[in-house]
Amino acid sequence: MSFDTDVLIVGSGAAGLTLAIDLARRGVSFCLIEQNAQPFSGSRGKGIQPRTLEIFEDLGFVNRVAAAGGPYPPLCQYRPDGTHTVSLLTETEAFPTPAEPYAAPLMLPQFATEAVMRERLAELGHHPCFSARLASFEQDFHGVTAQIEQETGEHVIRARFLVGTDGGRSFVRHALAIDFPGETLGVRAIVADVRLEGLERFDWHHFQLGSPETQVMICPLAGTELFQIQAPVALEGEVDLSPAGLTELIRNRTRRGNITVHSVSWSSVYTMNARLADHYRVGRVFIAGDAAHVHPPTGGQGLNTSVQDVYNLGWKLAAVLAGAPEALLDSYEAERRPIALNMLRLSTRLLGEAKQGTMRRDREARQLDLGYRGSPLSMPGLVGGKVQAGDRAPDAPCRGQAGQRTRLFMLFQGAHWTLLGYEVRDRPSAIIGVRIVIVGAEHELVDDDGHIAEAYGIEAGQWVLVRPDGYIAGIFPSDGLEPQLSRYLAHTLPSHLPNTHEGP
User: Fold this and answer.
1) Which part of the chain is the FAD-binding domain (predicted)?
2) For residue 421, how far is the Cα from the chain centroid?
3) Spelled out in words, what is the top-level CATH class assigned to the domain 183-273?
4) Which of 57, 228, 358, 457 gives 20 to 30 Å between its CA and that of 7?
5) What's the half-sphere exposure (Cβ side, CA atoms, 13 Å) at 378?
């Protein structure tokens, strides 16, 4: 049976682009379609959390994202009596550590983040196909047959899998008849990207001079000359999003007559919902990102959770396409849906706090502590002093055998698994798709400053197996290592043959 592509990706927002980049570097064929004629032009998902920055490093474009964006500005909160306070958005100032190289969120408008993603995808030889709408699809035991509408007419794409990253109103989710339970939160709001005068760009300005319903937030967008306006509005009725209309809204809510909006590059009126799909997979079709979960924008969780959905799915699709058991794909929903449920609870709680004028964020918003301890892919067994199966694998500066400075994240980077032995005696047989590295004197890595021991808390003679998405699959003793690995990897890898992925 012939196929046009391995994976059809529907929707070229941040989730679709991340999946495309991940599949491209793994050599998986795909087609990325987008029903709109051009890329999204709004700032909407402007916060990139530390865990997402780690993913962007693995995918090869974190430096470009960091260069295009900037840190979150201090929060300036104005009171009815004319006074104001300036504070950090986070509970405590966060600094990078050896285990966590990205400590604080980065601000970059969503349109700029996606532009960097498209640039990275082009380097890998691929581009989104715009003005291409998924009209219908059918699936069978072997694949998916999709009808695509374009200006040039209709055509059929036959793919082994289909992934819907097509937003909160997902056609793919509706076509699969997946329920999307949740609640409408009773908040309607505007968001707009504007050029204005009358406010400095040093702070994120938060005015609440009356009731919570009359607040307005005006944030300078890093890397641009724009400000993002956010404000609740009445649940019903028209909203004037013209420069004059937004100027009037701002002046009324700030009591400042010198603030003037000159132009609006993008704007939206929306009603906040918190909803979670009952399922993420039906047969050979998956949903991810906003197609699987929608939520209030508070806390900067949405784009990040969407990116992490497909980062979880991408390596599993590649493994199954290469011959791994299809049951591996069941772990996608098992791992990602509980994460989304917790994210909905967090963003909804933060929305309640925002209504009362509280905008502070703590560590849970940075997504570094999210993991899969209860996953079927997390191997029960040894528990390290600091980490266990299902946890994010920490970074750690160290040295190579020739004395060069390196980091564990550089070792993990790529499409492979990593088997890390800490001061072990014997090297196991090579396995296709697994990079085997030993830490210790006269071996590939030297933990000269003790950062690996500090981050992992493992003992001499222990091994850590790290998944392609940077999570710990298991911690093993040297005794009986190879039989344990063989049993585990039989469910996740296509085969067990000698390879060349040894050494950093």
Assistant:
1) 4-345
2) 29
3) alpha beta
4) 57
5) 20
